[in-house]
Design a protein that fits this description.
The strands form 4 sheets. A 5-stranded mixed sheet has the order 3-2-1-4-7. A 5-stranded mixed sheet has the order 10-9-8-13-14, covered by helices on one side. The chain is 31% helix and 25% strand. By secondary structure, it is α/β, with parallel strands linked by helices. It folds into 2 domains: 122 residues, 2-Layer Sandwich (Nucleotidyltransferase, domain 5); 113 residues, Nucleotidyltransferase, domain 5, CATH 3.30.420. The protein binds beta-D-glucopyranose. Beta-D-glucopyranose (BGC) binds next to helix 3. The site of beta-D-glucopyranose has 15 residues, from helix 3.
């Protein structure tokens, strides 16, 4: 099947048609900056422009950076709060193409990596962490996904700071840039987050994806965990490929 995969992010909305049998992207990834006011209309307009770029009329699978239940948005940590309660799958279906579905972006990236990337044929407990504007988390047990994990929002604090905050505010790539941390300083923080994840889930394998993952040579040498750690291999394609694939898991809900 050919599906237009769309990855909605905090800074960019990216898309490309994908062959769901091979995981191949059938063209050049097309990116439009996320509208400053990322309301439902603004997002649908942007996705429609991406569809137009590929003259697309078929099925659309979309990854969204928040909790998604049956196409309905339940959280918007790094996007406009007016999206909460919106049936984005329905909106996409009527504006862009049918069928249409929407899933969490980290779940999408995880699905792609488990099927075609660094997690291929991995059994046991695998967690995928995407490091970008936020921290996305996806959990797989013997290849089956537990959706909407949202462990970027567990509470952490810096040494000596009495205030706990969402972990992603301290360890996401956006936090590294904001605090102007070296990779070594960032890795020290991230190791505390990894220890937290290990305590909760005791994974066999931790996959690191998202924008930062392609810079693995800068930070992998500083990371420590009981489980094996690997960087994702599909890089910024994982979100798009996984969004297209997600229909197999969630059914055509558009
Ligand atoms: C959201 C997650 C998302 C992650 C990465 C977090 O702020 O709550 O749903 O997967 O960012 O985009």
């Amino acid at each position: 099947m050919q599906v237009l995969g769309i990855d909605i992010g905090g800074t960019g909305i990216k898309g490309c048609p994908v062959c769901t049998e091979t995981g191949e992207m059938l063209g050049e990834r097309y990116r439009i900056p996320t509208p400053a006011e990322a309301t439902e209309e603004a997002i649908l307009d942007t996705v429609q422009s991406i569809a137009k770029e590929f003259s697309w009329k078929g099925p659309v699978g979309c990854g969204y950076p928040g909790v998604v239940h049956r196409g309905v948005i339940h959280s918007a940590a790094n996007l406009d709060k007016s999206l909460i309660g919106v049936d984005l799958a329905k909106g996409l279906g009527s504006r862009v193409g049918r069928p249409a579905w929407v899933v969490n972006d980290a779940d999408a990236a995880g699905l792609a990596e488990m099927r075609f990337g660094a997690g291929k044929d991995e059994r046991g407990v695998v967690i995928m962490l995407t490091i970008g504007t936020g921290i996305g988390t996806a959990l797989f047990v013997d290849g089956h996904m537990v959706p909407n994990l949202e462990l970027g929002h567990v509470k952490m604090r810096l040494h000596k700071d009495p205030k706990y905050q969402d972990a992603e505010k301290l360890v996401a790539d956006s936090a590294r840039r904001k605090a102007d941390l070296s990779w070594k300083q960032w890795a020290k923080r991230f190791n505390r987050y990894l220890a937290y994840m290990e305590k909760l889930l005791n994974p066999d394998l931790i996959l690191l994806g998202g924008g930062a993952a392609k810079k693995g040579d800068k930070f992998m040498k500083y990371l420590e965990a009981q489980a094996s750690i690997k960087t994702a291999t599909l890089e910024n394609r994982a979100g798009i490929i996984g969004a297209a694939l997600a229909s197999r898991v969630y059914g055509d809900v558009g």
